[in-house]
Amino acid sequence: MNAPSPRRLDPCPCGSGRRYKDCHGSLGAQPAAPEPASFTEALALRSRGDSRAALARIEAGLRNLPGSAPLHNLRGLLLQDLMELDQAAAAFDAALGIAPQLVEAHVNRGLLLLLRGDYARGFDEYAWRTRAPGYADYANFPFGMPRWEGETLSGRSILVHAEQGQGDTIQFARFLAPLARDGATIDFFCHPPLASLLARVEGVRRATSELRERPAHDYHASILDVAQAHLRVAGAARWLGPYLDALPARLDRFGDLAAAPGPRIGIAWKGSPLHGNDRNRSLARDAARRLVSGGATFVNLQIGEAPLEASMLDVAPRIRDWDDTAAILARLDLLVTVDTAVAHLAGAMGRRVLLLLPFSPDWRWGTEGDTTAWYPDMRLVRQPRAGDWLPAIESAIARYPA
Known about the structure:
Blueprint: H1 37-47, H2 51-64, H3 69-81, H4 85-98, H5 103-115, H6 119-126, H7 135-140, E1 157-161, H8 166-172, H9 176-181, E2 185-189, H10 195-198, E3 204-208, E4 219-222, H11 223-234, H12 248-251, H13 255-259, E5 264-268, H14 278-281, H15 285-289, E6 297-300, E7 313-314, H16 322-331, E8 334-338, H17 341-348, E9 353-357, E10 378-382, H18 390-398
Parallel strand pairs: 1-2, 1-4, 2-3, 5-6, 5-8, 6-7, 8-9, 9-10
Helix pairs in contact: 1-2, 1-3, 2-3, 3-4, 3-5, 4-5, 5-6, 8-17
């Protein structure tokens, strides 16, 4: 039976047009019922980067409507923006005390637990994302087979499919090899730009972005299901060794980069503008220009953007796909980047990375420290205050290779 394949895996199935993890998958989903002006005004203030003023507006609203679960939930998000994590947890608990079935509050509490490294409870709560409107259709169509719930896969086949952004998919692809070693036959349904790259992950029989026939596997699972199953057992992230590499033929395309004097430092200062937190995680051009400092060969990796300085080597117009990006990363001595997919690719290849993180980081980077169990050759450079990139940039420059 023929089954149409989604054009992209990024959009949320609810039809909002936003990426899943930026809609029902994580922050700020709108409640089903209309909320008071304080809710709308706080969302607007937050979108402009003023979480402190947004929090004051929400707290004023709660004085009038103390029983509003969505207001408590948004208060929790704002407190997390400010890294007041104990209070954020209490706000999510308050929301769920009022509305125990509020999906957004469960998801946000789960993300907070994950940020704190509590993977067992965090993934249990984050699993509530599957109750968001439209998720069942997204997760099950066009697979038509049981969803894997941890059953033994020895001698069985499984279709693993991407669920969220390309960076998430790259990061969690590491967990496919252990499944294959346990005897599973794995096919991977992923974003079109990633198919060639991920076909080379150990244990993957085939990676594709098209399903021309309805699959006949024993199970299907999202890549987050696979990660969750592994992390629940392991209890923490750990490095399993490099699992992606560059194609030798692609390395030849960037011989000029290999010939450039070292150290060669690649710069990526922006993520996708569709990301819900992009205003916080990406650098303005003037701030990013400060990264071009010293006598290194700086390499522009920012597709669609002119080099920050005329002295930079501009390879961005030559990037056709992720295999080209992998070949460039293999030629670099260091990647300096904001929290976007290229960081995960470099990490998965075992390359050196300086990752610039906003004050309130994504859950996978934890709350403190400059190392990460996800990638041993990555160093985290954290904003000391919300919106203040200068100290982080200066700290990154101090770590450049001589």
